[in-house]
Amino acid sequence: MADNKKRRRKDSIDDEQPFKNKLKPDASILETLKDFSTASSSSSVPHALTLQDLTLPFRCREVADLSLSSVQSNIESLILKIAHSIISGQGFSFDVPSRSAANQLYVAELDRIVLKDKSSQRPFANISTVRKSAITARILQLIHQLCLKGIHVTKRDLFYTDVKLFQDQIQSDAVLDDVSCMLGCTRSSLNVVAAEKGVVVGRLIFSDNGDMIDCTKMGMGGKAIPPNIDRVGDMQSDALFILLVEKDAAYMRLAEDRFYNRFPCIIVTAKGQPDVSTRLFLRKMKTELKLPVLALVDSDPYGLKILSVYGCGSKNMSYDSANLTTPDIKWLGVRPSDLDKYKIPEQCRLPMTEQDIKTGKDMLEEDFVKKNPGWVEELTLMVKTKQKAEIQALSTFGFQYLSEVYLPLKLQQKDWL
Amino acid sequence: MADNKKRRRKDSIDDEQPFKNKLKPDASILETLKDFSTASSSSSVPHALTLQDLTLPFRCREVADLSLSSVQSNIESLILKIAHSIISGQGFSFDVPSRSAANQLYVAELDRIVLKDKSSQRPFANISTVRKSAITARILQLIHQLCLKGIHVTKRDLFYTDVKLFQDQIQSDAVLDDVSCMLGCTRSSLNVVAAEKGVVVGRLIFSDNGDMIDCTKMGMGGKAIPPNIDRVGDMQSDALFILLVEKDAAYMRLAEDRFYNRFPCIIVTAKGQPDVSTRLFLRKMKTELKLPVLALVDSDPYGLKILSVYGCGSKNMSYDSANLTTPDIKWLGVRPSDLDKYKIPEQCRLPMTEQDIKTGKDMLEEDFVKKNPGWVEELTLMVKTKQKAEIQALSTFGFQYLSEVYLPLKLQQKDWL
After folding, report:
1. Which of A169, A397, B150, B175 has a beta carbon 3.0–4.6 Å from A401's, enabling a disulfide?
2. Could you tell me which residues belong to the region Disordered (chains A, B) (predicted)?
């Protein structure tokens, strides 16, 4: 109470910003970042392990980005094979890879989930599979059409082209994922794209559908991340790192303050749950520009969950994990240990719900957390203190505390895990 | 069933696109649009009625866009007045305009909702209002700080600057709206902005925070609409109309096909529910460029509801309706009568739920629907047939039916209401 009175009497709240006096000059922080960036770009080579490099006790299945013409010819060969099978009296059946949980596996060396090679038959001449095989044939036909026209559509468009057959979108969506696996290509190679949600701003130049985009000249709004990654190219950057931000509000603060000009970086956000377009875009940046990725998420189990989706994929698209995931994302903040370290006031912390605590405990059992002792320590602390906090909680020290003190100090101290 | 078999045998589904043969050459459609655009820009002058022009039987309250320095001096005068009141022994109290439904009114001449001038006292020396008046003083102080720093923050940031006092965000949000009304300015004038959600693409050049943006060179992703409308300016365009699209998927189709190059237009979407940033941006385009606005929404009560929010505002921000609404939006499609006209197959239509039907019937009673006989007719048809359809339903005639047949024909026939 006494503290509170004292605070109200001051003209400015700037004096109370914890650790502001610890900040070194920007030039010194930039030196630290340059070392980090160089180390990261050279160390990322041994990281580029593929399934082929490993001697696993079973065969695994992965998909790749294929060109439209390869997708087209893959469909044509598949149909030809089936025609042969029909003519030779062996009937009409699709060989469909299993995408069930039992067929999924986390591979520690790759740090992502992959599919094992179990598959099943989907014969047309069987009452239990006739509908699904008809849907499969129809989806193949529609994708073939997209290849010929060279256009992109959404899953919803696909569904509406034959509502009578598909009945509901869950059915056409599921078969679409089957078709990806069957053809051995990513869903984006099929020219079926997700709605766009993410935005990017900062030291990045790239081409979107032939137009050159300079992300330092995108004002505060930023550039909407394109839904079709295959038309994104020519990435150039003088950034030292990529800053992945969970929330829109923090993104806005950094964009308005042009944080990327003080510390050369690329700032990207999916505004909450990561969508496929943003995940593909992040991966492409990381791969082509060889930059380290630092993540700024809420200090709660969902913040870490979001980090994990970017980092090692979601379970229902595990067949595509190699193309959707960005390895080696560092957890910059807001981490549970930051709450005390940065003296976040009690009233800006939120009590975790029963569900939060359960989610946190479950995550402690996940491979992607366990492999990083620092993360285990932080998550254990969160579950023990039963407290969470949003990135916005830093506003308690002033609206620009995030961009002017918290992040610069984090970078200066290389305080990421 | 016979139809279905026949369809499967064809090589292409293009032949089955209804009305494709009715399309005239683009040059002829462009002539129609030029006439419409010219008529619209000259007719929009008498439309610019303000509250001052009307002789209403009571006083109304509206807010205006104010510069940061005006907001700052308004706050300073307000506080000075209160200081005088305290010194002269009359105590400390805020005079707060009422934003309740009883104080709201739809004004047909303006075609939007406004606030009547009822207000109430919020004294500090009263147990029932002491907290609210303390919150009001604190919000005024924080806004004053934003004015001095010239930065933008979100409502969430504002809340976190004093969680102990505000307790939960609903309280700081509500007082923020009070403060807008008290100062007579829009919420965006306070530099408190909403999260951005919308995107824009097409024949528009504008400046965002000092950067010039050419929306014909934004690829398929488009430009994210900036959260802070006060830093948007220098709008230039050779478009003939603005196409307001409800959904992301339809937006994507039009952006990829560069529809705006065939029929010069600006395409904008909020991806569902209209957010404040997109509404402000649409209004600014309409006002500065004097272009007609055509809306493409789902054929269901919510599509029309969305149109109404753009057109005449939402109830809880009625004090700001003059700045947030775009008058004279035309309902281009998808309209209930289009379902039969364009032969949308039965299986692509969806049955309306009880709730849908109730919403539809309620809307028939709303002033903004009643003033447009064409809309009443369409909505009555919807409620009678109990059928709805999404924009995507047009994909049943081919993925590009929307951009290649439906919209061009709509434009050619001036088929809007």
Report:
1. A397
2. 1-20
Q: How many domains does chain B have?
A: 2
- Helical H runs in A93-247? 130-149, 155-160, 163-166, 169-183
* Mean pLDDT, rounded, for A39-65: 70
CB contact A270 to B (< 8 Å): no
Judging contacts by C-beta atoms under 8 Å, the chain B residues touching residue A401 are none
pLDDT of the residue at A48: 59
ipTM: 0.73
Q: Can you give the pLDDT at residue B56?
A: 74
Looking at the domain assignment, is residue B188 inside a domain?
yes
Q: Verify that B227 and B240 share a domain, yes or no.
A: yes
Whether residue B72 sits in one domain with residue B180: yes
Q: Which residues contact B174 (CB under 8 A, 6 or more apart)?
A: none
Domain with A344, as residue range(s), is 13-48+195-412
B294 in the same domain as B263: yes
Same domain, B205 and B290: yes
In a domain? residue A122: yes
pLDDT at A123 over 90: yes
Distance from CA of A7 to the nearest CA of B (A): 11
Confidence at residue B315, expressed as pLDDT on a 0 to 100 scale: 67
Q: Does B399 touch chain A (CB under 8 A)?
A: yes
Q: Where are the beta strands (DSSP E) in B250-336?
A: 265-269, 293-296, 329-333
Q: Could you tell me if A185 and A66 are in contact, meaning their C-beta atoms sit under 8 angstroms apart? A: yes
Neighbouring-strand partners of residue A263: none
CATH number at residue B68: 1.10.10.10
- Average pLDDT score over residue span A30-35: 88
Q: List Cβ neighbours of B276 (8 Å cut-off, separation of 6 or more).
A: B187, B188, B193, B194, B317, B324
A16 touches chain B (CB under 8 A): no
Closest Cα to residue A398, out of A12, A22, A19?
A12
Which residue is catalytic, options B106, B160, B251, B342?
B160
pLDDT (0 to 100) of residue B225: 93
Q: How far apart are CA A105 and CA A116, in angstroms?
A: 7
Tokens of B13: 């589904």
Q: Which two tokens stand for residue B281?
A: 């941006």
Q: How far is CA B98 from CA A102, B64, B113, B170, in A?
A: 60, 17, 14, 17
Closest Cα in chain A, distance from residue B200 (Å): 9
Whether residue B200 sits in one domain with residue B274: yes
Range A134-161 average pLDDT: 91
Structure tokens at A43: 């160390």
At A220-256, the pLDDT tens digits run 889 999 888 888 999 999 999 999 999 888 998 999 8
Average pLDDT estimate for A149-174: 87
Mean pLDDT for chain A? 87
- Burial of B104-120, coded b for 16+ CB within 10 Å and e otherwise, reads bebbeebbbbbbbeebe
pLDDT value at residue A258 = 92
B contact test, residue of A166, A196, A258, A348 with most B CBs within 10 A: A196
**B9 phi and psi, to 5 degrees?**
-75, -20
Residues of chain B with pLDDT under 50: 1-14, 45-46
Find chain A residues with C-beta within 8 A of B193's C-beta: 252
Percent of chain A with pLDDT over 70: 93
**Is residue B401 among the annotated active site residues?**
no
Q: How confident is the model at residue A15 (pLDDT cuts 50, 70, 90)?
A: low
A246 is in an annotated binding site: yes
B150 and B238 in a single domain? The answer is no
Kindly state whether residue B4 falls inside one of the protein's structural domains.
Answer: no
Is B231 an interface residue toward A (CB < 8 Å)? yes
Residue B157 to residue A199, Cβ atoms within 8 A = no
In a domain, A129, yes or no: yes
Write the DSSP symbol of residue A347: G
The predicted-structure confidence for A331-360, as pLDDT tens digits, reads as follows: 998 999 999 999 998 888 888 999 999 999
